[in-house]
Specification:
The complex is a heterodimer. By secondary structure, chain A is α+β, with helices and mostly antiparallel strands. Helices cover about 20% and strands about 35% of the residues of chain A. In chain A, strands 2-1-3-7-8-12 form a 6-stranded mixed β-sheet, with helices on both faces. Chain B is about 25% helix and about 30% strand. Chain B contains 13 helices and 21 strands. In chain B, α7 packs across α8, α8 runs antiparallel to α12 and α10 crosses α13. The radius of gyration of chain B is 26 Å and the shape is globular. About 5% of the residues of chain B have low confidence. The chains are: A alpha+beta, B alpha+beta. Chains A and B meet through α2, β4, α5, β15 and β16 of A and β5, β6, β18, α10 and α11 of B.
Chain lengths: ~350, ~500
C-alpha cells in the first residue's frame, strides 16, 4: 500500500496578523523530504499552500478548513473502498498560525480564520487519531509547527464518530513545535526563514537523528528534537518564558522499533579543543558504537597541537587525555561542548 | 549462576534533588530516555556508560553528564531549581524582594470591606529579569481591567476595581495589591481585555481563610499594538490564615505550587505515559499524616485521580479533610463527586477554580442532570482551553460566517455537526465546493433524503460533555436545536438523535 502525505503551509493570513515567513519554506522542504526519504510518490504527496498575496478579506482566502477536510474525506473514502486501508503510512504536516485547545492537541488556523473566527481551524491530533484509530493507515506521523496559545476549547473541527480501539500494530508519532500554552518561533537559519521546530526536524530527518545503521526511529527522533531545538534560539528567546525551548512529542511504544526513515547518519567534522599541556599526550575517545554503550571509538597519538580533529555522530563521549577525563558533547550541526567530568 | 559480561554489569547511580516533585530523567549518550524517577532521592541501576541526568522542576530543567564506570557511593546532587511562579516565593525565578514585601504588607490591610468572614487578596505584577536593561513594559496600572464581582442567580454586583481600589507602586517592576474583605462564598475575578472581551475566573473565599491570588501580566494584541493586562492562565493561588501575611519561605507553598504546575500539564485524555505516578511518595506520606495547606490538598487529590493506579482510600481521606478545612467549596465538592462521601455534593451554583474540577462536574451531569443549576449553565460562557484554571470567556454574539451562510450554526453546533458526521455528510453530498473559500454554498435546487442517526449512550455522552465543557442537559438542548435546524432545511441531511 502507498504512503500518503498532506503538507500544508500558510504564510500570510488576510486578517490574522502578523504575516509569517517560514511556513511556505518549511512545507516545501518537508514535501520534498517525504518524496525523497519518506517513501511517498509524487502523486500521493499533496502540497497545499496559502494564497500569496492573500485576498483582502479572509472569507475569500484559501486554503480553508473545508478544503483540508475534503482531502481527509477523500482518504477516508479510499480506505472504505479498499478494505478499510488507504495506505501504509500517512504524513500530516501543518504549519502556520495556530493555537492549543488542549494539552494533547494543537490546531492550525486556516487561511480564512480571523481573530474573531478561530473556528476555521484543523485540530491536528484529532484528525491524525481518526486515521490511526480507524486503521485507515498502519502508521500516522503528524508534525504541527504552530503556536499553542490557549484559545477556546469548544470550537473543534474534529472528525465525526467515536474513536475505535486502534488495530494491533498501528503506530503513530506526533510532534508539536511547542508544549501547550507556549509560542513557536521562526528564525533566519542559513539565510532562509524557517520555523525553529521544522528546521530542527529537517536536520533530524536528513540524518541528524539517524542511528549508526541509518535508522531514524521514534526514539532517536525524539532524542534529537528534544536536545537540539533550543540550538536555533537566541539568548532573548531562551530567556522568554513564553517561547518554547522544547517540542511536545509522542511516539507509540516501543519507540525504538518505530522506524520513521532510513537515512545515512550525519557525521560532523569535529574539532575537540584539548586542555593545555596535552600537546604531547595520546588521547582516546569512548562512547557508543556498534550497539555497545561504552567502547573506545577513536584514539590518536600526540601531534603537538591542542586540537583533535575527527568525524563524529552527535552524542556524548568521554575524552581521556593526560590522565584526565572530560565529557565531549556533539550536538546537532556539529557544535561541541567540552567539560571536565 | 552465569555471570554477566563486564559490559552488562549494573552500576548504581544515586541522584538527589532539592524538591520531592522534581522528575529525574536518565538519558544515554545519544539522548535516549533510559530510566526515570522522582526526587528527592532516586537510585538508578545502569550499565557502564555515559549518561546525562536531567532534572525537571516545575517549568525548569537542569542537566549534567556523568561517566559511569563504577557504582557511585555519593549521589549526584541537584540544588532546588528556581522556577517561574506568579507568587513571589523564595526559590522562584520571578521574585523581587519588593514584591514579597508588598504581598506581606498589603495582604494584612483591608482595602475594600464588603464582608467580614473571609478575605481575598490580589497581587498583580510585572516581572522582568533584574539584570536586563530596565525598560518599562507598561505605562498603565498592572491591574487595569480587573474587577471583583459577587455573582448570584439573581444579579451580579461589582465590588471593586482592583486598579482604583488597591495600592499601586510603579518603582521597578510595577505592582498593584488589593485586599477585599468578603463573606465566605464564590466570587468572580473579571478581566476586561482591550478587545472588549471579558475573561472570568472563580475565586473562593472560605471562612477563616484568606485566599491570595497572584497574577503576572501579558501583552494582548490590538490593532494599535500590544496592550498589557493580567494573565489569568498563570495564576497562583495560596490560602493562608484570615489575617493575611505572606511567607515566601514556607516550604509547603513551594510544594503546592509545583503540584499545580504538574496538574496544569496533565489531562485524563492524555495518552502519554499514563502508568507513571504523578505524586512522589513524599507527598503521599504528607497526605497520610494529614496536611494543613488546602490548595496542596486540592491539587494533590486531582493528581491522585489522574494516576492509573488510583489510591481510592487516600483520595477519600484527602477530600474528607478538605471538606473539614474549607466547608463548602466548589473544587472540593467536585472532588467529592468521586469520593462517595456523605452528604453527596449538592447542585453547583457557582463554577470551580480549576479546569479539572469542571471536568469532574461535567462528567457527573450525565448521571445527575440536576448537578449544574440552570443559572450556572446560562452564565458559564465558553471555557478557555486546558490548563490548571477554569477561565471562561463571555460568549460573543454569534457572528455570521459567510462560508456556511446557508446553514448558520453556532460554534458549538458547528463542532457538534462535525463530531456527529453531519458536516462530512454535507461534504460527501457534493454540496460544498471544498477547494475554494467563498463558494461554500449549498446548491439551490438540490434536496436530500439523507438521514443521520446519532445514538447517544452514556459513554458517548460523557465523552462529549467533557470535551465541550457543557453540562449534559444543555448539551442535549444544543443537539435538539441542531436537529431542528437540520430537519427544517430540505437542502441538508436530517438528524435523528436517540438516547439509550
Amino acid at each position: 500500500m502507498p504512503n500518503r502525505a498532506i503538507v500544508v503551509g500558510i504564510r500570510q493570513y488576510a486578517e490574522l496578523p502578523p504575516h509569517l515567513e517560514g511556513p511556505k519554506n518549511d512545507a516545501e522542504m518537508f514535501h520534498a523530504w517525504v518524496k525523497e526519504h519518506g517513501g511517498v510518490d509524487e502523486a500521493d504527496a499533496k502540497l497545499i499552500l496559502g494564497d500569496e498575496p492573500p485576498p483582502a478579506a479572509a472569507v475569500n482566502a484559501n486554503p480553508t478548513e473545508e478544503a483540508l477536510k475534503y482531502e481527509f474525506d477523500c482518504l477516508e473514502d479510499e480506505a472504505l473502498k479498499n478494505n478499510g486501508c488507504a495506505g501504509d503510512r500517512l504524513y500530516l504536516y501543518l504549519s502556520g498560525h495556530g493555537f492549543g485547545q488542549s494539552l494533547s492537541d494543537a490546531s492550525l488556523l486556516m487561511a480564512n480564520a480571523t481573530t474573531y473566527r478561530p473556528r476555521h481551524h484543523i485540530p491536528g491530533s484529532l484528525w491524525a487519531d481518526h486515521f490511526f484509530a480507524n486503521g485507515y493507515f498502519k502508521e500516522v506521523i503528524l508534525f504541527l509547527d504552530c503556536c499553542r496559545e490557549r484559545y477556546s476549547m469548544a470550537t473543534l473541527n474534529g472528525p465525526g464518530n467515536p474513536m475505535p480501539v486502534p488495530p494491533n500494530g498501528a503506530r503513530r508519532f506526533y510532534g508539536f513545535a511547542t508544549k501547550y500554552g507556549k509560542l513557536a518561533v521562526e528564525r533566519r537559519i542559513d539565510g532562509v526563514m524557517h520555523g525553529v521546530f521544522t528546521a530542527t526536524l529537517m536536520d533530524a530527518l536528513n540524518g541528524g537523528a539517524s542511528e549508526e545503521d541509518g535508522r531514524i526511529t521514534g526514539e532517536s527522533l525524539k532524542a534529537y528534537l528534544f536536545e537540539n531545538m533550543k540550538g536555533f534560539l537566541s539568548e532573548e528567546d531562551l530567556a522568554d518564558q513564553d517561547v518554547a525551548k522544547e517540542p511536545d512529542l509522542y511516539c507509540e511504544p516501543p519507540e525504538e522499533q518505530f522506524v520513521i526513515a532510513t537515512v545515512q547518519p550525519k557525521k560532523y567534522p569535529i574539532t575537540i579543543p584539548l586542555p593545555p599541556g596535552s600537546e604531547t599526550k595520546a588521547r582516546q575517545l569512548i562512547g557508543e558504537q556498534g550497539g555497545r554503550k561504552f567502547v573506545q571509538i577513536a584514539n590518536a597519538g600526540a601531534d603537538g597541537t591542542l586540537q583533535w580533529q575527527l568525524p563524529l555522530m552527535r552524542g556524548t563521549y568521554q575524552l581521556l587525555v593526560n590522565g584526565d577525563s572530560y565529557v565531549v558533547t556533539v550536538k546537532g550541526r556539529g557544535t561541541v561542548d567540552v567539560a571536565a567530568s | 549462576m552465569s555471570q554477566l559480561p563486564d559490559s552488562l554489569k549494573m552500576l548504581s547511580l544515586p541522584v538527589s534533588t532539592g524538591d520531592s516533585q522534581s522528575e529525574i530523567l536518565i538519558l544515554d549518550g545519544r539522548g535516549r530516555l533510559v530510566q526515570r524517577g522522582f526526587g528527592p532521592q532516586s537510585s538508578f541501576n545502569l550499565e557502564e556508560g555515559i549518561y546525562r541526568v536531567k532534572v525537571i522542576t516545575g517549568t525548569e530543567s537542569q542537566e549534567r553528564p556523568v561517566v559511569l564506570t563504577q557504582s557511585m557511593a555519593k549521589p549526584m546532587v541537584f540544588a532546588p531549581a528556581d522556577f517561574a511562579s506568579a507568587a513571589p516565593l523564595a526559590g522562584t525565578s520571578t521574585s523581587h524582594e519588593y514584591h514579597v514585601a508588598a504581598a506581606d504588607q498589603e495582604s494584612r490591610k483591608i482595602h475594600v470591606k464588603d464582608g467580614a468572614d473571609s478575605s481575598l487578596f490580589f497581587l498583580v505584577r510585572d516581572w522582568t529579569p533584574t539584570q536586563s536593561e530596565r525598560k518599562r513594559r507598561i505605562i498603565g496600572n498592572p491591574a487595569e481591567g480587573l474587577s471583583i464581582y459577587a455573582v448570584s442567580p439573581l444579579a451580579d454586583r461589582k465590588i471593586c476595581e482592583l486598579a482604583s481600589s488597591g495600592t499601586t507602586n510603579t518603582n521597578g517592576d510595577p505592582w498593584t495589591a488589593c485586599t477585599v474583605g468578603v463573606e465566605a462564598g464564590v466570587y468572580e475575578l473579571r478581566l476586561q481585555l482591550p478587545t472588549g472581551e471579558v475573561l472570568r475566573h472563580s475565586v473562593v473565599a472560605s471562612p477563616g481563610w484568606q485566599t491570595q491570588t497572584f497574577l503576572f501580566i501579558q501583552p494582548y494584541a490590538t490593532p494599535s499594538g500590544p496592550q498589557w493586562r493580567a494573565d489569568l492562565s498563570r495564576t497562583s493561588v495560596i490560602m493562608t490564615g484570615a489575617g493575611g501575611g505572606f511567607m515566601p519561605n514556607e516550604p509547603m507553598l513551594r510544594v503546592a505550587e509545583l503540584a499545580k504546575v504538574r496538574l496544569a500539564k496533565r489531562t485524563s485524555a492524555e495518552p502519554r505515559d499514563s502508568s507513571r505516578p504523578l505524586l512522589p511518595e513524599e507527598m503521599r506520606r504528607l497526605f497520610r499524616d494529614k496536611f494543613t495547606n488546602p490548595m496542596l490538598g486540592i491539587y494533590g487529590a486531582h493528581l491522585l485521580l489522574l494516576e492509573k493506579s488510583f489510591d481510592y482510600p487516600l483520595f477519600r481521606d484527602v477530600v474528607g479533610n478538605l471538606r473539614g478545612m474549607l466547608g463548602s467549596h466548589p473544587d472540593v465538592e467536585a472532588l467529592a463527586l468521586r469520593a462517595d462521601l456523605l452528604p453527596p455534593p449538592p447542585p453547583f451554583e457557582q463554577p470551580p477554580m480549576l479546569s479539572r474540577s469542571w471536568f469532574l462536574i461535567m462528567e457527573a451531569t450525565v448521571d445527575r442532570p440536576e448537578l449544574v443549576t440552570d443559572s450556572l449553565a446560562e452564565r458559564t460562557g465558553e471555557g478557555l482551553s486546558d490548563g490548571a484554571w477554569f477561565v471562561r470567556r463571555s460568549t460573543q454574539a454569534a457572528m455570521i460566517d459567510l462560508s456556511t451562510s446557508d446553514y448558520e450554526f453556532s460554534d458549538v453546533e458547528a463542532a457538534l455537526a462535525e463530531e456527529l458526521g453531519i458536516s462530512k455528510a454535507i461534504r460527501r453530498m457534493g454540496r460544498v465546493q471544498p477547494a475554494m473559500a467563498g463558494t461554500a454554498d449549498v446548491h439551490e435546487n438540490q434536496q436530500t433524503e439523507q438521514d443521520i442517526q446519532a445514538g447517544m449512550n452514556t459513554t458517548r455522552l460523557r465523552s462529549m460533555v467533557t470535551r465541550f465543557g457543557i453540562p449534559a442537559p444543555q448539551l442535549k438542548g444544543v443537539l435538539g436545536n441542531l436537529e431542528q435546524k437540520l430537519n427544517s432545511n430540505p437542502k441538508l441531511p436530517n438528524l435523528k438523535v436517540t438516547y439509550e
